[in-house]
Amino acid sequence: MKVLVIGYGSIGQRHVQILREMDLDVSVVSRRDLKEVNFYNNLQIALQENDFDYIVIANETVEHLITLKMILDNQFTGKILVEKPLFVNTELVEFDYSKTYVAYNLRFHPLIQKLKKMLKNEQVISVNSYVGQYLPSWRPNSDYTKGYSAFSEQGGGVLRDLSHELDYLTILFGEWHILIAKTDKISNLNIQSEDYVHISYKTKQQVHIAVELNYLDRITQRYVIVQTNEKTIKIDFINNSINCNGEIEQLDKLDRDYTYRKQHDAVLSGSSKCCSFSEGLNIVNMIEAVEKSSRCKEWVYND
Q1: Is residue 229 a contact partner of residue 122, using CB atoms and an 8 Å limit?
Q2: In 136, 159, 219, 277, which residue has its Cα 20 to 30 A from 69's Cα atom?
Q3: Domains of the chain and CATH, by start
Q4: Cα angle vertex 134, ends 84, 82, to 5°?
Q5: Packing angle between helix 164-173 and helix 110-118, nearest 10 degrees?
Q6: Helix (H, G, I), strand (E, B) or coil at 194
Q7: pLDDT in tens, 210-259
Q8: 234: helix, strand or coil
Q9: Who's near 66: CB < 8 A, 6+ residues apart?
């Protein structure tokens, strides 16, 4: 199977490594001058000279739409995986996106799957979700002030970077109905984008949810706490553990590439577990609603 990965930043490199470990024939498109086998610095040429089966779009978020259009304009009929978030803003699309998926790989985490089973017969009352990581520690070999995360116009900012939370909360508890939010740059990080987001919302299933995302946490934490009428459940993604009413279950340490491999397997097998194009677009819509709420200081409804 022939695969094309577009973009060779940290996430693009990870996709290339994993796909090659899966014994796939991988080519790369990048603006960088790479000494890579099957390397192209021009997407059009790569598409003209090859018959790819699967394409991964892993360039900057602001380039996702034009990249996707170019691929489809070249009559590509295979499967496409677009890194999250799908677009910077909600876009009207007039093409067949039935084989296009969005890379919200955290939904493949065993803890998410286990939590989903634990909640099957429970009435969920409230949810608190938190993720924080100190931005300068994300990519140790690069200058955080020059990466896309530092610039809102490039699709950076913690709201989009850590939008995995918005995806997994949606698949577990349903779509948002009404929200109020605050996005801000509150630290001394040398970035133009927001480094802090707080969202309070209610789902269409009447579940109350609070979310915090930040670039500030030097401990690095990612967890979700779920309250039901019978249980308090805490999922700790960093320690790979589940605490239910004080009883802790410690799962085996997870390979950092596990969820990415599961995601690629799911896309290639046609599994319904993948984030669909429309689901990815719904997350973009929620991101825009969060920004509107913060800007206008008002509740926003999802009609």
Answers
A1: yes
A2: 159
A3: 2-103 (3.40.50.720), 106-245+276-301 (3.30.360.10)
A4: 10
A5: 30
A6: coil
A7: 999 999 999 999 999 999 999 999 999 999 999 999 999 999 999 989 99
A8: strand
A9: none
Torsion of CA 81, 86, 92, 94, to 10 degrees: 0
Statement: residue 287 has pLDDT above 90 = yes
| DSSP, residue by residue, 79-116 | EEEEESSS-SS-----S--TTEEEE-GGGGSHHHHHHH
Instruction: Pick the more confident residue, 235 or 139.
Output: 235
Hey, what are 134's tokens? 């100190």
Retrieve residue 55's tokens. Answer: 């394409």
The letter for the amino acid at 201 is Y
Reading across the β-sheet that carries 124-132, which strands appear in turn? 247-250, 241-244, 232-236, 221-228, 124-132, 208-214, 196-203, 176-184, 300-301
Instruction: Tally the residues of the chain.
Output: 303
pLDDT at 94 over 80: no
Element (H, E) at 236: strand 232-236
